[in-house]
Write a structure and sequence with these properties.
With 263 residues, this protein is α/β, with parallel strands linked by helices. The protein is 45% helix and 13% strand. The structure holds adenosine-5'-triphosphate and magnesium ion. Magnesium ion (MG) binds at residues 16-17, 40, 44, 126.
Length: 263
């Protein structure tokens, strides 16, 4: 049975898509059968993985034709063990329709439960930067929520807002909602403010912050512009090793006892 991990944050540009793509890749390369779901209307997973076509079947069908089977809308990724459920909701009217259906906050959770959970070890969900009904769907579908946080001065403010919204969701909708941890991203050890933010976050939140820190890594930018994951492109880069370490930390911290390693 798959564990569902959602990358969520109200703030844009913090590394949600990059983290979702690379954690999914790291798990797939580690032999775990993995489904990557792009719930963001921006469809950034397409760009990160060099997929041009945005009119294929995907997330739209999950919401608008819920009787659809996963096998009818899933695509195979570049790696063995990696499947993709892509975002095809960038059209404004489609996005609005999907958002209306997504006011049933458990829609995605129920669809995944019926169609995907038994076929994978991991389902990784990339959520939009908001607290829209789509993001709430992404969080309520998750066993574990990971909140990427860029190591910059405004990060703590945006994290406080997110944690407030998260508690509100827990109080009003789903008490079982579970935060896996805060993931520090794009860390540059040569920048003093990054060091300070990093220290403050660990002091304030301790074990709720992953030990793995994703460094600022030009290879990630380069690989993404080429539509390749950085693990395939530059296996020894700090970005690639960071995401492999994150996958191992997640396995150690939460998941390994429940997961049967594929192959
Ligand atoms: N560790 C990193 N080092 C260097 N660049 C990075 C790193 N992580 C992400 N980036 C770059 O930062 C930008 C934002 O990252 P990403 O798209 O993953 O953020 P996001 O939170 O998904 O954004 P959005 O909220 O718009 O969906 C991208 O150009 C990405 O390639
Ligand atoms: Mg994104």
């Amino acid at each position: 049975m798959a564990k569902v991990i959602t990358f969520a944050s109200q703030k844009g540009g913090v590394g949600k898509t990059t983290s979702a793509v690379h954690l999914a890749t790291a798990f797939a390369l580690g032999g775990y059968k993995t489904l990557l779901v792009d719930l963001d209307p921006q469809g950034s997973v397409h760009h990160s993985l060099g997929i041009d076509k945005q009119d294929s079947l995907g997330v739209r069908e999950v919401f608008c034709t819920p009787e659809v089977k996963l096998s009818e809308i899933v695509q195979t990724g570049k790696h063995q063990n990696l499947d993709l459920l892509l975002s095809n909701i960038q059209d404004l009217l489609v996005e609005q329709t999907v958002n209306k259906i997504a006011v049933d906050y458990y829609h995605l959770a129920q669809w995944l439960e019926q169609n995907a959970v038994s076929s994978y070890d991991f389902i990784i969900v990339d959520a939009p930067a908001s607290t829209s009904s789509l993001s709430i769907n992404a969080m309520l579908a998750a066993d574990y929520i990971v909140v990427p946080l860029e190591c910059e001065a405004l990060a703590i403010k945006s994290l406080k807002r997110f944690l407030q919204a998260f508690k509100e969701l827990q109080r009003t909708i789903e008490p079982k909602l579970r935060l896996a941890g805060i993931l520090l991203t794009m860390y540059d050890e040569t920048i003093l403010s990054h060091q300070q933010v990093c220290k403050q976050i660990y002091q304030a939140l301790g074990d709720s912050v992953f030990k793995t820190i994703i460094p600022n890594c030009p290879h990630i930018l380069e690989a993404s512009s080429l539509g390749i994951d950085v693990i395939q492109r530059h296996l020894n880069s700090a970005g690639a090793t960071g995401y492999i370490r994150l996958a191992n930390e997640l396995l150690d911290r939460f998941l390994l006892p429940d997961v049967e390693k594929a192959g």
